[in-house]
Structure formats: C-alpha cells, structure tokens
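Typical record was shown:
=====
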Amino acid sequence: MSADSSPDPSPRGHVLLAPDRFRGALSAAEVAGHLAAGLRRARPDVPLLELPVADGGEGTAEAAIAAGWRRVEVEVCGPTGRPVTAALALNGRSAVVELAEASGVRRLPGGKPRPLTASSLGTGQLVAHAVRLGARRIVLGLGGGACTDGGAGLVQGLGGRLLDALGKELPPGGAALRSLHALDLRGLPDLSGVRVVVAGGSAGPLLGPAGAVLAGGPRRGATREEMRVLDAGLRRWADLAEDAARRRVHDLPGAGAAGGVGFAALTFLGATVEPGASLMLDLLGFTEKARGAMLVVTGEGTLDARSLRGGAPIAVARGAARAGAPVVAVTARRGLTGEQLRKARIQAVYALDGIDRDQDRRMRQAGPLLERLTVAIADEWLPPAAC
C-alpha cells in the first residue's frame, strides 16, 4: 500500500467505485461489491455509487449489465460445439456482445485447449440475436477467446456457409480453413443499418509476426506445428474472404484480435475499432457518474506496465481527472512506479500483497482482503465518520 500525494482536505459528494475484474478471483461487479461493503462499515454516511468497468475483454457484457443494461440470455454453440447459455447486454437499440461469453476459454470443456478446432460460431449467433432484437449499434468485445479461426465461425453463426471443393460445409476451426474453396454469404442478415464497433486494444494485423497465430496461438494452446497449420488456414481464409467482401483489411490494426475474429468483424460487419476502455466508459455513462465525486476508486488484479496500454483503470483515472475527482486504485499486486502512477493520474495504490504475501491465499481471500483495504482508503481520503 502506498500513497503518492496528499488527499483533498475538503472532499464532498459521493465515492464512485469503478474497478475492473481481478482475473481468476473476482469479477468487476464483485470487486465493487466488496469495496462498497468495506466502505459502508468504515464510513456509513458517505454515499457510494458502484460502476464496474471493463476494457472490452472478458467481463464487458457483465459490466454493462451491472450498469443497468438488460441481460438477455440465449443458447448458442460454445467453442467446441457444445451448447452454452450466453448473455448479451441490451439498452434500447444498443447491444454489447462479448466473445468470451460464447467462444471463450472458460467455455472449453475441462479447460482443455482446442487450437485447431475451436470456433467463434456462437459469437456470430449472439450478434445475429442482437440484430433480431433490434440492435442498431453493437459493441463487440473480443477478449478471452479460445479460437484461432479468423472469425470464420462468426460468419457461419450469422448464416454464411464455408464450402470445400466438393461443396460440403467445412468443419469448425482454423485448421479446416486450408480446405476452403468458396463462401456462400446469401444467408447473412442485412446489416446495412447496423453499426458494429470492436472494443479493441493493441491487437495487430491478421497475419505475420504480430498476427493472430504467431502472437496469440501459444496463448490458446497451439504447438509450433499447429501454428503452421493455422497460419496456412488463415491465409487461405483471408484471400477468399476479402475477395468475397471486396474489402482488404487483413493488414489493419485489430484484424488479428481474438485469433482473427477482428478480421471477420472488419470484413463482413464493416466494423470500426475503438479503444475498448474509453469506449466502455462512454457506454456506462462514467463522466456523468464521476461528476461531483469526492473520490473515485478503480483497480484490477495486477496494475503494471500492461495496464498503461489501454487498461480500464487508466481510462478511469484520466476520466476522473477531467471531472476533477481524485483517484486511488486497488490491486492484488502493484507493478507501477510512483512516476508512472503520477502520469496516469492515480494518486495512490492499495495492494493486497501489502496485507498477505501468499499469492494463492490472496486469490482465495481477495474479497475480504479488499474490504480490509477500504479502512486505509477511508482514513486517508474520506472525512471522519459522523459521531
């Protein structure tokens, strides 16, 4: 635990709790809930507002739902073809669809990677369902995916057909794309009035050293030989998909996101790519909720150099600074220097490893430990409790 500047001596208003998830331990909503529980005990007279946030990765749909968007559940195909119940978030004519909900690593049976055959089919089904519900703006979060299929499954989930030289439907997964001969896109819905925005980070192009296979394949369990197979499949897919869509996007930033699902979104959905964290804060109404706050509390599991490259806590800190509110962060482990925190507009960091050095225990007890951290936050940043 450390502080890098003095708290405001005359705070006013509410405390806004806007954390991201602690990966492998707590969702963003759970982090916010534990912070709220601790602060209510420490300062029961201070109004709290919980606003779990996300950066477009896993937990994006849940963050929107926690902010008041409607949860819509639908049965779709998981990454291995097994049915799963996935949720999307709906608010009027806007929807948030998350790859991890339908095609994520957490949907793999037994957690076993299937790099050659895992498919994004269910994500396409989620997008199609959002369109049927009347969504005209769809935010597509692409973190936490299990597949390296170039988004071919996404196209199939929307009603497209991928055919081999005999006119037979290809099986799912990136490896099968080596046999792709033709695309039948007549089953795709009319998306002319639908705007799709990929909540992206720093993903590279579809192919090459920074592409979907070489940069992301190992994370999805692919061996070197499997990566060669997948690379050949994605090259074949890129050639035929771009010819069919009459659009060249495979070299664009973001095309390699989520094993190439970004490529399919750019090619067939006409998607644009925007920084995920700032996009989500806009959707969640962060600016309005931060106005008049005496303090904003953000955080994530590990606050380090990767957080500086588009992480939600950094976007929260910058947004709060524009609203004139001080920001502190909670984390399991701090990996940023005081100078980095100052530039990120974060005044103080409170870390679980300052309470418990055992990593496994910190994961198991993250919630109660966060509640303990709030005592110091309240003492250092909030007015004394009324007598």
